[in-house]
Write a structure and sequence with these properties.
Elements: H1 12-23, H2 29-50
Helix pairs in contact: 1-2
């Protein structure tokens, strides 16, 4: 049982990424934190692709 089962039908990519973070939260917390970060990045990218008002900031080097 996952906390993210509600994502399985509409957002399977988010579900898979969140599940990776959730599975490692106790035995590999640093890796889980990076997986959670990746999940958030996926969500922000999805939002910017689907909402014309939102734009990603340009990358600076």
């Amino acid at each position: 049982m996952s906390n993210f089962n509600l994502l399985t039908t509409e957002w399977p990519d988010f579900y898979e990424a969140a599940l990776k973070a959730e599975r490692g939260v106790y035995n590999q917390p640093r890796t889980a934190a990076m997986e959670a970060w990746f999940t958030i990045e996926l969500a922000v990218k999805w939002l910017s692709d689907h909402d014309s008002f939102l734009k990603l900031c340009p990358k600076t080097s």
